[in-house]
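Troubleshooting: if your tokenizer reports a length mismatch, compare your output against this known-good record of 55 residues.
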Amino acid sequence: MKFGAETEGFITDPVYEGKSLAGMIDLIRTGKIAGGNVLYAHLGGQLALNAYSGM
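Known-good structure output:
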């Protein structure tokens, strides 16, 4: 969540978008996705943040 906000300026929720972004970053860092372009489809996430306001 923090990485996406700091580097690209988009907000993710801590469950679905946050986990999918973390998974994609892990695949890139471990070399399982290498040598090409990667498209991450950010489908929102900020709308769900109200459900996690107590975190």
